């Protein structure tokens, strides 16, 4: 593998620096990611100290790819410029184009100086935390390192491409029973849910906890639901359709709220939250739980739901890891201080947490939520599907994999787990709706 000749260039999903302001003044719901995304031929980077060049078989779409496409909340090239100013290694990333993508599954092609593991030919998946070798103060939690960045979002050479450049310590073993596209879809959301719920850096979930999960069939929510079920907790899944409610029940969740059917509106107008709806949601949850309050809220939509999350949480616990509906939150602080709640910010995961989360996937205890895959040339369309919320689970992208269904080594485990692996598939087709 190490002796294979490399091409001069490769295909990649990119945004361009000279188009950064193209959505200025355009209403959020009219920003089309397809207008700013390109599938380009870009030069092959050379691995530096501690880096690895990976042949990408498959990748996946995350909300940070949507944010990069629409230059919100921070233009992608601002992060690359800051990287170049603050780190001697960062100048290579500050280019006129940005290769996107924070997930991958693939095969190691080349290793830079100082890399002993992995080796060329190894099958790997990537964790998206990019952090230089940490000083002793950061050994307890590398997420606390001020130099840490999200690969493929705050760095260049991401996973939505035929080749990707990553640090060696980002790479973990590919689950042998999964296809390339199934393996690629777990990394960011799986490790985020692990840190948010399971880790002591998050909620430290325990047996018997009640866990409210917003968006339980989206990107992060299904992993939060799986961790709750696997850890002996009880998830209360909030979704937006009867179809999604049924999907939660098929995952094993018994307590499900279809917020659209119930007509929940947490805002009277764009600037005024509606506490009456918070109280109505709290009563609804207590009806489902026999009068008990929630121990943990898996909060990630942000602006739309944060006020309700603070209101409905039991004394001691709300965790938050994202803001997909907007970063500016309004809530009633009386419920935060008088109920002694903790709002715990959790962001992706450190290397130890990511390895633990990936181990559970390798063991077949946590399952991918792939619903559709697209070939790389249609990746802009896949990003738009996620931006518009027209998906459930994760949307994958085939990069070098010529078709869906390849990459499986452990057929025995796969056969045993096949119903779980295909639960999110659209119409049972290997490539879902994406083709």
UniProtKB/TrEMBL annotation:
Its EC number is 1.3.1.86. Residues 32-397 form the Enoyl reductase (ER) domain. Coiled coil: none annotated. Keywords: NADP, Oxidoreductase. The keyword Oxidoreductase applies. Gene3D superfamilies: Medium-chain alcohol dehydrogenases, catalytic domain. NCBIfam families: crot-CoA-red (TIGR01751). This is Crotonyl-CoA reductase. It comes from Actinomadura namibiensis.
């Amino acid at each position: 593998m190490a002796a294979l000749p490399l091409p001069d260039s490769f295909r990649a999903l990119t945004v361009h620096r000279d188009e950064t302001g193209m959505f200025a003044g355009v209403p959020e719901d009219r920003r089309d990611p397809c207008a700013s995304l390109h599938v380009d031929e870009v030069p092959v980077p050379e691995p530096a100290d501690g880096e690895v060049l990976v042949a990408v078989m498959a990748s996946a779409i995350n909300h940070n790819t949507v944010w990069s496409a629409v230059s919100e909340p921070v233009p992608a090239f601002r992060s690359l410029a800051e990287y170049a100013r603050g780190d001697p290694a960062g100048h290579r990333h500050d280019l006129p184009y940005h290769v996107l993508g924070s997930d991958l599954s693939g095969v190691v092609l080349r290793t830079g100086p100082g890399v002993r593991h992995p080796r060329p030919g190894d099958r790997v998946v990537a964790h998206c935390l990019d952090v230089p070798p940490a000083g002793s103060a950061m050994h307890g939690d590398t997420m606390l390192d001020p130099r840490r960045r999200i690969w493929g979002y705050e760095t260049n050479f991401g996973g939505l491409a035929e080749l990707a450049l990553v640090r060696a310590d980002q790479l973990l073993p590919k689950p042998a029973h999964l296809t390339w596209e199934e393996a690629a879809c777990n990394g960011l959301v799986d490790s985020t849910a692990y840190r948010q719920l399971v880790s002591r850096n998050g909620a430290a979930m325990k047996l018997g906890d009640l866990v409210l999960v917003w968006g339980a069939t989206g990107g992060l929510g299904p992993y939060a639901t799986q961790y709750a079920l696997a850890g002996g907790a009880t998830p209360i899944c909030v979704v937006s359709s009867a179809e999604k409610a049924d999907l939660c029940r098929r995952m094993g969740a018994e307590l499900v709220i279809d917020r659209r059917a119930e007509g929940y509106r947490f805002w009277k107008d764009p600037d005024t939250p509606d506490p009456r709806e918070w109280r109505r949601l709290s009563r609804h949850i207590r009806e489902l739980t026999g009068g008990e309050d929630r121990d943990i809220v898996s909060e990630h939509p942000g602006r739309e739901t944060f006020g309700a999350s603070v209101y409905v949480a039991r004394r001691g616990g709300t965790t938050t890891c994202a803001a997909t509906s907007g970063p500016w939150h309004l809530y009633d602080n009386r419920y935060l201080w008088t109920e002694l709640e903790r709002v715990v910010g959790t962001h992706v995961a450190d290397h130890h947490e990511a390895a633990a989360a990936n181990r559970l996937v390798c063991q077949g205890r946590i399952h991918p939520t792939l619903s559709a895959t697209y070939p790389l040339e249609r990746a802009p369309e896949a990003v738009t599907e996620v931006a518009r919320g027209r998906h459930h689970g994760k949307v994958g992208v085939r990069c070098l994999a010529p078709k869906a269904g390849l990459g499986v080594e452990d057929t025995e485990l796969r056969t045993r787990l096949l119903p779980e692996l295909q639960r999110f598939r659209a119409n049972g087709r290997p490539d879902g709706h994406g083709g």
